[in-house]
Amino acid sequence: GNSVTQMEGPVTLSEEAFLTINCTYTATGYPSLFWYVQYPGEGLQLLLKATKADDKGSNKGFEATYRKETTSFHLEKGSVQVSDSAVYFCALKLTGGGNKLTFGTGTQLKVEL
Amino acid sequence: DAGVTQSPTHLIKTRGQQVTLRCSPKSGHDTVSWYQQALGQGPQFIFQYYEEEERQRGNFPDRFSGHQFPNYSSELNVNALLLGDSALYLCASSLAGLGDYSNQPQHFGDGTRLSIL
Fold it and tell me: In this structure, what are the phi and psi dihedrals at residue A9, rounded to the nearest 5 degrees?
């Protein structure tokens, strides 16, 4: 079946540190890949996406590259801020699979001063 | 431009009861999907509605049902509530495109927190 595996959290970093959150996927077809962010008490916000192999999604200093050979979509940011503290979800959607998003379990990020 | 709105924000029920959750999609959107997010987990897809019909369904029992109205708003109904139904229920809307909507982003509401006692 289709699934997404994320590194377990929480990830605790100091402000201005480099961030990597690992995400790998298993899919029967050719998925589009997404990163969503969830702030406390809120719903999910789309952070970035990539729809085909070697695409790089980027937004607000975050970026992730769709690696078909390693079935990965790792999230990176060069310098995190306290305001980046949230839960990050990696997700996939199959081409021809309608609107269904398959999510990972989420990775909590805590950024400290 | 109003985003996705859900009501109520919090709800407490007891086992065996029935519940209805409501969702108004983002302006201009015509497709609504529902997700269940248990504590500490990622959201799980329940079903999707388009043109007032259920178009796609995840691995949830028939106790979970829904409806979409002509104004594109939607309801999620859960019958015979179980303790395990306690979760955050998220509604997401999007605009149906040609084909399989792969390039249409989904916008999420803030959810309804359902607690079963």
Answer: -110, -170
The helix/strand/coil state of B100 is: coil
Q: In what order do the strands lie in the sheet with A62-65?
A: A19-21, A75-77, A62-65, A56-59
CB distance B108 to B92 below 8 Å: yes
If one counts every other C-beta atom within 10 angstroms of the C-beta of residue A77, the result is: 20
Residues on A contacting B at a C-beta cutoff of 8 Å: 4, 32, 36, 41-46, 49, 51, 89, 91, 93, 95-106
Q: Which tens digit of pLDDT belongs to each residue from A2-45?
A: 899 998 889 999 999 999 999 999 998 789 999 999 998 888 99
Per the structure block, which two tokens stand in for B78? 């859960």
CB-closest option in B42, B45, B104 to A89: B42
Any residues with CB less than 8 A from the CB of B88 and at least 6 apart, and which? B36, B37, B38, B39, B111, B112, B113, B114
Distance CA B82, CA B18 (A): 10
Strand partners, A21: A75
Q: Which amino acid is present at B63? A: R
Measured between CA atoms, the residue of chain A closest to residue B110 is A43
